[in-house]
Every structure is written in C-alpha cells, then in structure tokens.
Amino acid sequence: MEAKHDVLIVGAGCAGMRAAIEAFDAGADVALVSKIHPVRSHSGAAEGGINAALGNASEDDPEKHAYDTVKGSDYLGDQEAIQILCDEAPGDVYQLENWGAVFSRTEDGRIAQRPFGAAGEPRTAYAADITGHVLIQVLYEQVMKRDILVYEEYFAWRLVVDSDRCQGVICWDLLDGGLKVLGAKTVILATGGAGRLYTGTTNAYSCTGDGMAMALRVGAPLKDMEMMQFHPTTLSPSGVLITEGTRGEGAYLLNSEGERFLTRYAPNAMELASRDVISRAEQTEIDEGRGIDGNVMLDLRHLGAEKILERLHGTRELSMVFAGVDPIYEPIPVRPGAHYHMGGVHTDVWGRTPLEGLYAAGEVACVSVHGANRLGGNALMETITFGKRSGRHAAEWALANTTVAVPPSLLSDAESELKELLDRTKGERPWSIRDELASTMHENFGVFRREDQMEKQGEIVQALRDRYKRVVVEDKGDVFNTDLTQALELGFLLDLAECMIVSGLARKESRGAHARPYDYPERDDERFMRHTVVTMTDGAVKLGWRPVTVTKWQPEVRRY
Length: 560
Ligand SMILES: Cc1cc2nc3c(=O)[nH]c(=O)nc-3n(C[C@H](O)[C@H](O)[C@H](O)COP(=O)(O)OP(=O)(O)OC[C@H]3O[C@@H](n4cnc5c(N)ncnc54)[C@H](O)[C@@H]3O)c2cc1C
Hints:
Elements: E1 3-10, H1 14-25, E2 30-34, E3 50-51, H2 62-72, H3 79-99, E4 113-114, E5 124-125, H4 131-145, E6 149-152, E7 154-162, E8 165-173, E9 179-189, H5 210-217, E10 222-223, E11 228-235, H6 245-248, E12 252-254, H7 275-287, E13 296-299, H8 305-311, H9 313-323, E14 332-341, E15 344-346, E16 358-360, E17 365-366, H10 378-400, H11 408-423, H12 430-444, H13 451-468, H14 482-506, H15 525-528, E18 530-537, E19 540-547
Helix pairs in contact: 1-4, 1-10, 2-3, 3-10, 5-14, 8-9, 12-13, 12-14, 13-14
C-alpha cells in the first residue's frame, strides 16, 4: 500500500476541496486525488452564481428558497435535504466571502444577487459570470494554506472494499504510470458529473461519471439516474454554456418568427421559468419548424453594451470565440444541451452511502436536493454545503475507527485486468464507441423520451458493451497515457448509460427532466413520486425504488 489516510477525497472540484478543508479542520489526516489539476476541475466553468437567501436584493429567507427548490424539483427532491441546504447556504456563502471570494457587490457594498430561473426572489450571488472560477481559486488557496496533500494526476479506477467497508482507492498514476493503492478509513467521492454521455454538452472532457460507476461496481446504489438536465441555452454547435445569468439580466428567447415563444409555455415566468420547462419549449419550437438551423435565438441586444460588458463579459467572449457572434449587436444561437446529472450515488444528508466508509458529495451524489430538475445556482451551493457536511462526518468517523486493510489480491486482480487490456493489440479504438454512445444517447434519451427509442437505446448500449470487450489501447506507454484512461472512462460511461435507460423505462410518467409527452404526458404522484434506485450485481443492473422525504410541501401542479 502506497499510503494511508483518515479521509481520502477523490475529486478536487468545489465539493472535494470543501470536504477536504472541513475534514482537515476537524483534525483528520486528509488527502485529495484528482485526475486533473484541482483548479482545472469543471467547477471552474460555472458562470452564473450560487444560491443563498441572503436577502440583499429583496425580502428573502431560507424557507422561500426551500419552497422554490422543492417545486423546481417537480416534487422529487427530498425535503429534509433541501431544508438543510437552504438553511446552511447563507452561512456557507459568507464563509467563502471571508476566505476571499470576490463576489459582485450592491451599491452599498453587500453581496449582489441576481434573479435566476424559477426562483421567487433574486437570490443568486455571483462574481460577474465567472463564479465557479472565483470559488475554485479561493478553495484551492485554503487547501494550500493547510498544506493538504493532493495526489495530482492520479486517475482513480477502483474502490477498495474489504470486510463490507470501503478502505481506499486503486489509482493509475498518470505521470509515472503504474497502479497505486491509497488506503483510507473513509473515502469521499467528489468526481462530478457525466455530461460526456451526450454529444451536445456543457461538460468538459473530464466529466465521465467515474465516481458513480466506481460506486456502482462495489454495490453502492445510484438514485434517479434518468434525471439528466438539459440546459436551455448552450451554444450551437459546440455546446458551450451561455449562463442563465443572461436571462436573469433580462435576455429574451426568440423563435425564427422573432416571437418570444415562452408566452405560450410559461406566460408568467417567461425566460425565468425552470430549465426543464424552457428546454421542452425550445425543443418543441425547433421540432415544429420554428427554429433556425436547429436553434432558437437568445437576444441580449436591448440590455445595452454597458450592462453586457460589465456583468456578462465572459458570455460575450464565449459567443464571439465559439459562434462568431457579438451579442451587443446580434442574437446568440442556442439550443438545449446535456448539462447536469440530478441523479448519482445515493447518500444521506451527511453524504454517507449505504457502504460503510464511503461518502459522496457534489454532482456525483444524489442526496437529493434537485429531484427531477435542478434550479440554476443550487449546484454550486450543494457542492459547498454537502462537501462541508461529508468532510465533517467522514473525519469524525475516521477519528473514531482505527484500522485500514487492503488485501493484496485486490491490487493483483486490478493489475491483471489492466495488463490484459494493454496487451491487446487488435480491436476497436475507444473513441468510435464513445462517439456512438454520445450521439445515440442524444437522439434516444434527450429532452423528450419515447418508450421505443429508450428500448432501442438499451439495445445499442448492449451492443456497444460487447464491442467494448474488444477495445484496444494503442498507446502502451506509462507517461500520460490518455489513451488508456479514455478507455477506462468509456467503461464507466457505458455502465451509467445502462442505469439511465433502466431507470427511464421504469418511470412511466413525465416529471422534470424526464418528459414522455407521447405515452405518459402527466406527472403521476400516486405511482411515481419516488426515487428510482439501481444497483449492479455480476454486471447486471437491478432496479428498485425509494420513497421521497416530504416534510411540509405537498405536491402541487407547477405553473410558471
Ligand atoms: C458550464 C457549466 C456552468 C455551470 N454554472 C453553474 C452555476 O453558475 N451555478 C451552479 O450552481 N452550478 C453551475 N453548474 C453546475 C456546477 O458547476 C457543477 O455541478 C459543480 O461545480 C460540480 O462540482 P463537483 O465538485 O461536484 O465536480 P467537479 O468540479 O466536476 O470536479 C470533479 C473532480 O473530480 C476529479 N475526478 C473525476 N474523475 C476522477 C477520477 N477517476 N480520478 C481522479 N479524479 C477524478 C476531477 O479531476 C475533478 O477534480 C455549471 C456547470 C457547467 C458544466
């Protein structure tokens, strides 16, 4: 065994670093593992902001935040977890500010807050449109200040489970090659999302759902995997995100006839309806021939150059670089793109999974605060609040339990499997399977879902899994073998795609991101106000259900 720690955190984005800081401050020996440098984690791409009921722009309180989140989740969010998020959010945001996060300001010097989709009050605190970048730098400073060990460029591949307890991680050392075993009393997964399951996505190449698949493979359950959020404003054709902050500042969505089509779908909230509602509206406009080259238009022109330059300068730059459009003068072509996985590793409100010693926080986890539809600004908040909580609990548990055992056979098994993969000289390259997976997921498991398409996608994924057994890695070297890690990531993605399809077929209703307008157009609270849960045994995915925790908000019809 290379090393032993009290708390080992896989992933160094906002969730992972926040967990590390908390666990360290609780007295634990902590280390972080990351396949890329921490500040390159995808949290850094977050633009629009982070939600907390600070009440700086209006009368607001955590109760209103919680209600908006429950309603936004289409009543699939667990209300106990949502209440915790909303109650702890203001303190957690001030903590970030005290660590040096430079939030945008009101004229009297308080943290400014902007309106965001489906929020009853302007509650999204922001640092212009580079909020994630600011937070990740601040958290990394705190990690460095504490001198927390970071295994940088280590690719976590397998969880170590012995005596029904998670006791470490087996990693591929990207810099020098070879498998390394890191033992730990507790492991926190903070590996982010899996947007790379789709062709058109806002997610980076690193977002391949590794932690979800690693947990699944050791028997931990995944929850609500069918719930992939499509963001309504992703740039065509790259998928780069155009923040909801643009609509928060007043941008319009137009169809090919120049109509603000949301008058027909969400007449009250208009461009600030929830993401699922707007994505469906856009897709309907495009499918019915009122799009322009498969897009609708996001118009910022009436905001004026001054506001665009001051509050949305990053958006302008992205539009100019990736679409050749200057939003001061022209509308931006946008369409729905895969953005955020509401589903993930099932945890309780302390980030604990049912497997002792294993925790999860951030986008990899499903606690669940987002249910069937996440509100913009709530994901960053979740990384901070639940990163903190999982770090605290993992540290307390680790300090009360002493041993770590990693049976040598686990490493030798992993080495043989990897050798078999690297020794293979004939077969198919990973990229062709990966591209086919992503394009077919987009086609058959997108904004709208049909039974026959989901079934077809199940068969496609099965065939891709068979092809994956013969995948060949051409690079046989030790140093930065991304050919190898991409092959391993593809294995993770294939497992997750299957979980999504099994869950999607079972949910015979329309709720949040799971829209089945052709066969089950309505939400069915009686039968389906519950979470899907999948586990994997001997490679086969098994479906189960869990109740939703309701504390005070009974389901209502959502009107925006
Ligand atoms: C473009 C974009 C904009 C967004 N804007 C907002 C916003 O304004 N507000 C908001 O609330 N939310 C926003 N979100 C969502 C939010 O940013 C993310 O959900 C959140 O930042 C995820 O953080 P995380 O810490 O869970 O994961 P990440 O930041 O993705 O970090 C994952 C970490 O895990 C590591 N990792 C992954 N796999 C492995 C492995 N096998 N081995 C070792 N390390 C591994 C990575 O190296 C990385 O360090 C946005 C998302 C996107 C894509």
